[in-house]
Specification:
The chain is globular. It is built from 13 helices and 13 strands. The protein has 3 domains: about 130 residues, Periplasmic binding protein-like II (D-Maltodextrin-Binding Protein, domain 2), CATH 3.40.190.10; about 80 residues, Periplasmic binding protein-like II (D-Maltodextrin-Binding Protein, domain 2, 3-Layer(aba) Sandwich), CATH 3.40.190.10; about 80 residues, Porphobilinogen deaminase, C-terminal domain (Double Stranded RNA Binding Domain, 2-Layer Sandwich). The longest helix has 18 residues. By secondary structure, it is of the alpha/beta class. Strands 2-1-3-10-4 form a 5-stranded mixed β-sheet, with helices on both faces. Strands 7-6-8-5-9 form a 5-stranded mixed β-sheet.
Length: about 325
C-alpha cells in the first residue's frame, strides 16, 4: 500500500499542524511515526499557538467561542501550509470549517477522568470543604452533584502544572483526563480513577483526531490506514449528542460510547452547573448506526428537560455559575 500511495502523490514531505504543549507534541509525534511508516515520506511538525493556549488566567467557560484549541490550526490547514492537524478529539468542535473533516481516529485509550492528589484523596474521602481543581463545567456539575460541600478551584495550564498544584497541596485534588496523563508516561502519578457511574466523560475524551482537507485524496488514503473503526464509531455517536445539543466548553455535557460486541452502548449527561440537577440516560443500539443512537440519546435528554437547562446556563453570567 505504501508504494501505491507514493505513486499517487508528487509530495516530497508532509507537515503536521500541532499545538505546542507536551501532550499535543506527544500525540503529533505518534501520528508522525505512523504517517512516515505508511508513506515513506519525511514528516515535520509545525507548532501553532491557539487562543486556548494564550489565555491561561481565565476559565475556558468565560473565554467563550468554539474552537479555542483548533481554529488557528485549521486556518493553516485551509491555507495548505500544513497537510494535516492532530487534535485531542474532546477539543474539536462538532461544526468544522467548510472543506475540512476528521478523517481518522487511532485507537482510543482510557476515556475516564482521573484524580491526582498529594494526600491520596478520592471524591469519597475528600474532607468537608476540600478544594477540587478543574476548569471544566462538565466536571464541576458532576462533582457538585456528588459532593456539594467542596470548593471548586479553577486550574488551567499544561498537564504537569495542574498535577503539581495537587501534589504540593495548592488544591486537595485535581481532575484530569486519564488518557493524557497515561500518554505522557505519568500514570504512576494518578491516585485514582472516577468510574463512568460517577462521572460521564467528555465527548471524544481519550481519542486523537486527524483533520484534513476534503479534497486531499492522498491524505485520505493515508488516514484510512490509521483509523480505528471502533473508536471512530464511538466518537461519532458522542459527537452527535454534542452537535444536536449545541455543546461546547460553555455548557456541562458529557457522552461516552463503547462497543459491546455488535452493540453500541452510551451514557450521556446534561447538568446544572451547581449540581442540583443531573439528567443522565443510558441507551443501547446497533453498532452499525452510531448516528441513530446519538440522535435517540438527544431525543431522550430533551424529553427530560435538557434544552431548558442548557438555555438557562447560556443566559446566565458565567462568574455566577462558577461561584455557585
Amino acid at each position: 500500500m505504501r508504494w501505491e500511495i507514493q505513486l499517487a502523490s508528487s509530495r516530497t514531505k508532509l507537515v503536521i499542524g500541532t499545538r505546542g504543549s507536551k501532550l499535543a507534541l506527544w500525540q503529533s509525534e505518534y501520528i508522525k511515526g505512523l504517517v512516515e511508516e505508511i508513506t515513506g515520506l519525511p514528516v515535520a511538525l509545525k507548532i501553532i499557538k491557539t487562543t486556548g493556549d494564550k489565555i491561561l488566567d481565565v476559565p475556558l467557560a468565560k473565554v467563550g467561542g468554539k474552537g479555542l484549541f483548533t481554529k488557528e490550526l485549521e486556518v493553516e490547514l485551509i491555507a495548505e501550509t500544513v497537510d494535516l492537524c492532530v487534535h485531542s478529539m474532546k477539543d474539536v468542535p462538532t461544526e468544522l470549517p467548510d472543506g475540512l473533516y476528521i478523517s481518522a481516529t487511532p485507537a482510543r485509550v482510557d476515556p475516564r477522568d482521573a484524580l491526582v492528589s498529594g494526600a491520596g484523596y478520592s471524591l469519597d474521602t475528600l474532607p468537608q470543604g476540600g478544594r477540587v481543581g478543574t476548569s471544566s463545567l462538565r466536571r464541576i456539575a458532576q462533582v457538585r452533584a456528588l459532593r456539594p460541600d467542596v470548593e471548586i478551584v479553577d486550574v488551567r495550564g499544561n498537564l504537569d502544572t495542574r498535577m503539581r498544584k495537587a501534589e504540593i497541596g495548592e488544591v486537595d485534588v485535581v481532575i484530569l483526563a486519564s488518557a493524557g496523563i497515561t500518554r505522557m508516561g505519568w500514570a504512576d502519578r494518578i491516585t485514582g480513577y472516577i468510574p463512568t457511574e460517577q462521572m460521564v466523560s467528555a465527548v471524544g475524551q481519550g481519542a486523537i483526531g486527524i483533520e484534513i482537507r476534503e479534497t486531499d485524496e492522498f491524505m485520505r488514503d493515508v488516514c484510512a490506514q490509521i483509523c480505528d473503526a471502533d473508536t471512530f464509531t464511538c466518537v461519532t455517536a458522542e459527537r452527535v449528542v454534542m452537535r444536536k445539543l449545541d455543546g461546547g466548553c460553555q455548557v456541562p455535557i458529557g457522552a461516552y460510547a463503547r462497543l459491546e460486541g455488535d452493540t453500541l452502548v452510551m451514557d450521556a449527561i446534561v447538568g446544572e452547573v451547581d449540581g442540583s440537577t443531573i439528567l443522565r440516560h443510558h441507551l443501547e443500539g446497533p453498532a452499525i448506526d452510531p448516528i441513530a443512537l446519538g440522535e435517540a440519546m438527544v431525543a431522550q435528554l430533551k424529553a427530560m428537560g435538557a434544552e431548558e437547562i442548557l438555555s438557562a446556563i447560556r443566559a446566565s453570567n458565567v462568574d455566577d455559575l462558577l461561584e455557585t
